[in-house]
Every structure is written in structure tokens, then in C-alpha cells.
Task: structure prediction
Amino acid sequence: MCGIVGLFLKNETLESELGRLFSPMLIAMTDRGPDSAGIAVYGDEVETDSVKMTLQSKDDSFDWNHLADQLKAHFTANVAFSTNANYAVFKIKAKEAVVRHYIQSHFSMLVIRSAGQSIEILKEVGTPTEFVQRYNISEFKGTHIIGHTRMATESAVTTSGSHPFSTGMDLCLVHNGSFSNHNRLRQKLKREGIEIQTENDSEVAAGYLNWKMREGSTLSEALNGVLKDLDGFYTLAIGTRNGFAVLRDPIACKPAILAETDNYVAMASEYRSLADLPGIDDAKLWEPEPGEVYIWEN
Amino acid sequence: MESYPQLTLFDLNQETLRDLNLQLHNLTDEDAKNSWKITNPKGKHAIACGLKVPVSVEIDGHAGYYCAGMNQLAEVTINGNVGVGVAENMMTGLVRVKGNASQSAGATGRGGLLVIEGDASARCGISMKGIDIVVHGSIGHMSAFMGQAGRLVVNGDAGEALGDSLYEAHIYVRGKVRSLGADCIEKPMRDGHINDLETLIEASRLDAKASDFRRYGSARKLYNFNIDNASQY
Result:
């Protein structure tokens, strides 16, 4: 069991309150996923000639200034960064692939959790409440955010095994359920050159989307491919630069509920997460149909 | 001195769900005809479960999973939507949902009446064993799966695989059926069925005519031993 939550703002004036509205939604899903929590938040975009990367170190003492100096010297480019406990968000005026290569070769103690122009992924082992407090999620601003609370079933309780999983530039995936054909698919994706770090089944789904879209599929086509190529139980939420998508398996083994008002579209595994959102009593509430791809984008 | 029915207000923002269910479980026959009004359910699970006396309970808002499960004798009304498994394993009594119901509404229910005034999603009445379920809207896929007894009435449409592996539950649908499940077939409406249906339509306060419904039931080929196969032993 796991919990999924998402909040997509339709009203720009609420962007400064994104974290405040979202934090109780994540905490409400603690019963469904008490062992790890994570979010992908979108906003504060960099220019198209730059890349934004979320980096994680093992502890809070990492010297991020040193990394910034090295990046500036190597790329002779503008580098800005902000820190949040053991995470830092770097904005670098350079191509994503070269920055990724440099960091992986020279700072292998760091993990790149996300890359893009907008996305920031933070995730950690611990309860959702601990997560929200440690990273001060209530203060986050942005256009949309998706989150996950994890109750691990098959793979280990580690930060790398928790969600969201990056699935390419500005893309991420959270999953509630389990896949039964992930082993064979993992082998195929690795042969296709898709990097997969863990034995986690959800990471294979993320890798699958990454691969399909690398080969030219749209998000909608890639998600329809999931219905065909992935076997198992799932509700998926996918964050994109401009919005988010939701997909449930064709027999609807895993729950999902959506709420829409003039101000937002909200998604959760259970209504409990939505109960304290402003205007929820007058929201349109519905369960997404099984096997149908839903996409909201600005 | 004659006692008057009492109304107890219970705000789930102020007191815990455990306290609520404990108080409801401690009711005795002397509390019959009393009523309870529960506010701020906020999708909490297992609200008003396991009631055993004929009290009336009204829940103001959306309830979570297993609301009014295992009900006996009580009348529970939900002024909102409900999560998975509303009135699951109900024995007797009445559960009325004013909004929509999620999956497995009335699952394994043995008796009583469950009314859903909105839609119900997948697996409505799964493994029903005597409960009557009336849905004013439509229902999702695999509804009445392995239904053994009781009646499922659907004023709207039914999703895929209706009545799959059905035993002796009766199914009445007014709208379209996307597909029938294994061993479920359409059957003729006889006078007895019309009478049954009229009673349920009235009890559930549905505005419909019994003659507009079609009846579905078991072909009895999956669960009955076929005597023609005896020679194979």
C-alpha cells in the first residue's frame, strides 16, 4: 500500500500557498505509507539555455559552495544554488547532459534526484510528518506538486527506493500498487540504455516512460503503452513541466479520487487527503475511470 | 413517564472516531428510536460500523472506507459520498448514501437495504449473500461478482462483466449493460419479479417503473453439476 497526492493550481494567486495547502494532504496519507515520503514540485523555472538540478548528499554537512565554485570554473557559466537540509537545487547555464556527467564523475557521493527547467524532487526515509518538517514543505511555492507516502512491499526501504522517480527532464512518476512483469522489462530497458538504479518495480515504470518518450511518444502515448506493456496493479501520477497526469490500471485495483474547483485540480488515493482543501464542499469530485489516461496541463 | 426520542450531536473535529464508535456500540434496546448526527466525517474510515440497535444515524459529509459496515437494525444516512465497502457485510437495517459510492458497495452483505442515490463504482454487491442494493445512478465493472443471494437494482447503466460467476442473486438494470460476465444471462421478468422490484423501488424512493427494467441471472452452468457429465466418471 502507498499514498499518492497531487495539487495543480489553476489560480496563479495561490502559488505562494502551494506548500501550505499540500502539506496536510501528504500527512493525511501516513496510514497508507509511513516509511518514506517524497515530492516533486514545479515552479521557479530557469531559462531554456540553463538547467535546474536537485542534488542530494548523505548528510547536511556537504560543502555546496565548493561544488558551485567547481561548476563555475569548469563551465565558465552562471551558477546559483539554494540549500534545504541535505538537498540543494542548482541552476546552471549549461546543457543537462554535460552537467550530469561532470557531477557523476567528480562528485559521485551526490545523487541527482531531478533535472529540468522547473522540477525539484525531494524524498527521504521517514514519516510524512518528519519529511514535511525537515524540508519545510509548507513554505514551498510553485504551480503544481505531486507527492507520495510509501509502504514498501517488495524492495528495500531506502531513499532511492522511494518516490517520486525522475523519468526524464521535468518528468516524474509516483506509483501505488505493484507490477508483476518488472524483472523482464528492467532487462529490456537496460539494454535500451535506460539507467535503472534499484530493484524497485516502480522505477521500472518510470524507466519505461523515459524510454517511450525518448523514442518519440507523447506522454499520452507512453501512458497508453503502460496499459499494454506493464502487468499489475497501479494508480500512477505523473508530473510534467506544465501539469500532471493520472492513470489507473484497467481493473481498478488501486484507489484514486479527483477534485476540481475554479482554483485547483487535486488528486489523492483517498478523500481524507482532500477534506481540508478550501472550497472542497463545492468541488466536483469523482473517481478516475480505470484504464483511462487523464492529463491536465497549463 | 414516557421518554422522547433523543438527538445526539457528535462532531468528529472535536472528538475521536474511536469514541464515536464506542458510544454507538454501547447503545442498548432502550436507545431504540434515538438518533445521532455526525458532523465533519472528512473521509474517515469505519464510521458507524457494527451497529446493533435500531437507532438512526445521519452523517453530514463524505465518509471513508467501510462506512456502516456489518450493520444490524440501524438506519444510517450519509449526506455525501462514501469510500470503498459501504455497508459491507450488512445483516439488517437500512443504509442510504445521498451521493456516490466507491468500490465494493454492499460487499458480502447478508440482508438489509442499501440505497445509493448517486453512482457506485466497480464491484458493487460483490459476493452479495442476501442484501438488497438499489443504485439510482450507474454501477462500475464486475458488479454482483459471485453474488449468491439478494437483489441488485440499477436505475442507470452497468459496467463490464455484470454478474460474473453468479449464483442466485437477482439483478435488475434499467439502462445499458456494457457486458455480461461468465454464466450471467438475461432472463424473463415474471409477475413475482415485477412485484419484488416494485417493493424495492418504493422502499428506496426511486422514481422509476418496474416494467422498464430487464432482469439478469445465473445460467447455472458454472456452479451446478451438469448431469450430462455423469458418464465421464
